[in-house]
Amino acid sequence: MFRANLRQIKQNQTKKSPGPREPIRLLFRLSNVSKGYSYGKKGRIKVLEGLNLCIIKGPITGIVGVSGCGKTTLLHILGATDKPDSGEVICEGMRLQYDDKMQMERFRMNVVARIFQDLNLASHLNVIRNVMFPLDVRGESKTRARIKALQSLASVGLLGNGSHNKSKSRIYNLSGGERQRVAIAKALASGAKVILADEPTGNLDSYNTIKIMDLLRDINREKGVSVVFISHDTRIAKDYGQFIIDLEHVKENPPKTVFYGVPAERYETAEKFRVH
Q1: Can you tell me the distance from the alpha carbon of 171 to that of 193, in angstroms, rounded to the nearest whole number?
Q2: Residues 75/230, Cβ–Cβ less than 8 Å
Q3: Read out DSSP for the chain?
Q4: pTM for the full model?
């Protein structure tokens, strides 16, 4: 399975570029990662067990699977907002030491940006103050933080003229799609190398779903930011993910070697999914 996946990756690289093949670079590597939670008198429920998984740097990776299979738990582990019970997580060669609070704080501030399902925006602040907030926490000057925030808002289409300029609007006056753009701008302003998005279109209509996913794809292509997103919609995962990880399938059929995900063109639906 490992060789088949690598062969497919290299074939894809060859099709895209007539020049020398670039070496495959890993964004995350998980080795024997397990995670469980206490559940009343029933003891502990294992959500992830012995997970061996790699996420490639560069391509957009979509993570799919039925509700409760551990998608959000996996994203929290990758973003260092939760730690595994056992196993090892490496991000671009750095082993994440979850008990080292300073290392994890630096990692969350400088490497990853997380877009939560609830967006984690402060409704009492206006748009630009929300985008500036993580920069303020990091200790950047007000002037520098404001410049970065304005640039990020321009990138997501919220810094137009007149009524199209949403920088001073309150969060509660924005539409769902606009709020999602603010969350993305906040991630961009941080200068993160990786965006981890938990159901980024879960609360949006079809029009805004396409707009937000197009935006994430543009950010990936133009700014070189790696994107890992969760989706319950396998169609969205196939349309926008260059690699797809079906977490439920990986758990039920653990690979004998490290699993790299499946190229989107070989992925059909969660029900028909098979690795050949």
Answers
A1: 26
A2: yes
A3: -HHHHHHHHHHHHHHH-SSPPPPP-EEEEEEEEEEEEE-GGG-EEEEEEEEEEEEESSS-EEEE--TTSSHHHHHHHHTTSS--SEEEEEETTEEP-TT-HHHHHHHHHHTEEEE-TTTT--TTSBHHHHHHHHHHHHT--HHHHHHHHHHHHHHTT-B-SGGGB-TTSBGGGS-HHHHHHHHHHHHHHTT-SEEEEESTTTTS-HHHHHHHHHHHHHHHHHH--EEEEE-S-HHHHHHH-SEEEEHHHHHHS--SS-B--EEGGG---TTT----
A4: 0.85
User: Residue 164: its pLDDT value, please?
Assistant: 79
| Domains of the chain with CATH codes | 1-110+244-262 (3.40.50)
Query: Residue holding tokens 């290299």?
Result: 10
Sheet containing strand 226-230, edge to edge, reads 112-115, 194-198, 226-230, 61-64, 243-246, 262-263
Residue pair 16/270 in contact by the 8 Å Cβ criterion: no
Return the structure tokens found at 99. 């008990």
Backbone phi, then psi, for 73, in 5-degree steps? -60, -45
259-to-60, 110, 184, 230, 242 alpha-carbon distances in Å: 16, 27, 29, 17, 15
Q: How far apart are CA 31 and CA 224, in angstroms?
A: 26
Indicate the burial class of 222 (C-beta count within 10 angstroms; 0-12, 13-18, 19 or more).
exposed
Rounded Cα distance between 171 and 198, Å, is 20
Nearest Cα residue to 36 out of 107, 89, 85, 95: 85
pLDDT in tens, 196-253: 999 998 888 999 999 999 999 999 999 999 999 999 888 899 999 999 999 988 888 7
How many CB atoms sit inside 10 A of residue 189's CB? 27
